[in-house]
C-alpha cells in the first residue's frame, strides 16, 4: 500500500532488521536492542524519521485516546480502547470494532510490542498474532525483525519445515545475494544516502 507513512514505517523496519543482522554484541535482550535502534533511527535525521506518525510510534508515549495502541513498550497493548476511541472511521476509512493492524503504524506497533516483550522468535510471533486482527501481516512484520534478531538457529524447526513446503530455495538464494552485495560499511552517512535515493524513487 503506497504512501508516505507506509514508506517511513518500511524504512524503520529495514533499518531495524539491518541492525539486528549486524549486531556485534551478541546480546539477546530485545528490549535493549529495540530501545537503542529506535533512538538511533530518530537521531539520524533521515527524512523518514520526520514522519510525525512514525516518530510518535517509535517514542511509544501516546496519551489515552485514538493512538494509545502505539505504546508498544507498555506490557498491555490498548487495542480495545483505541478502537473505541476511533469510532466508525479513521483517517477517512471505515473502522471495524474487531479488526486491527492493517494501518501500517498499527501493524508495526503490534509487531514491535510482540518482539519487545518476549525472549524468543516463537514467543514473539505467538504474542503478536494473538492480538488477532490482521494477524498475517503483523506476524510477518514481527517475523522479519525477530528472525533477523534471533537468527536461523532461533527459529523453531517446525516452522522451517512448513516454509520448505512453499519455498523452493528462493529465500535462501535472495538472502545469499543480499549478503554478498551488501555495503562493507553501513554508517549513518551511507544509510542517509540510500534512504534519500529510495525516497526520490517514491
UniProtKB/TrEMBL annotation:
Keywords: Magnesium, Metal-binding, Signal. It comes from the Eukaryota. SUPFAM superfamilies: ADP-ribosylglycohydrolase (SSF101478). Its cofactor is Mg(2+). The keyword Phosphoprotein does not apply. Mg(2+) binds at residues 134, 136-137. InterPro entries: Ribosyl_crysJ1, Ribosyl_crysJ1_sf. One of its GO terms (molecular function) is metal ion binding. Binds 2 magnesium ions per subunit. Residues 1-18 form the signal peptide. This is ADP-ribosylglycohydrolase family protein.
Amino acid at each position: 500500500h503506497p504512501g508516505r507513512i507506509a514508506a517511513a514505517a518500511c524504512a524503520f523496519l529495514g533499518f531495524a532488521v539491518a541492525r539486528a543482522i549486524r549486531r556485534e554484541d551478541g546480546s539477546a535482550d530485545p528490549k535493549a536492542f529495540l530501545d537503542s535502534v529506535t533512538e538511533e533511527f530518530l537521531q539520524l535525521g533521515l527524512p523518514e524519521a520526520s514522519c510525525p506518525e512514525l516518530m510518535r510510534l517509535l517514542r511509544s508515549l501516546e496519551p489515552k485516546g485514538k493512538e494509545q495502541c502505539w505504546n508498544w513498550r507498555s506490557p498491555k497493548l490498548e487495542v480495545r480502547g483505541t478502537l473505541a476511541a476511533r469510532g466508525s472511521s479513521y483517517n477517512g476509512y471505515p473502522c471495524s470494532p474487531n479488526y486491527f493492524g492493517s494501518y501500517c503504524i498499527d501493524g508495526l506497533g503490534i509487531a514491535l510490542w510482540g518482539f519487545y516483550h518476549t525472549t524468543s522468535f516463537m514467543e514473539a510471533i505467538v504474542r503478536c498474532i494473538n492480538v488477532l486482527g490482521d494477524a498475517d501481516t503483523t506476524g510477518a512484520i514481527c517475523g522479519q525483525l525477530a528472525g533477523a534478531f534471533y537468527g536461523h538457529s532461533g527459529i523453531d524447526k517446525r516452522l522451517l519445515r512448513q516454509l520448505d513446503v512453499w519455498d523452493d530455495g528462493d529465500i535462501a538464494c535472495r538472502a545469499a545475494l543480499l549478503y554478498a552485495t551488501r555495503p562493507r560499511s553501513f554508517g549513518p552517512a551511507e544509510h542517509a544516502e540510500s534512504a534519500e535515493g529510495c525516497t526520490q524513487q517514491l
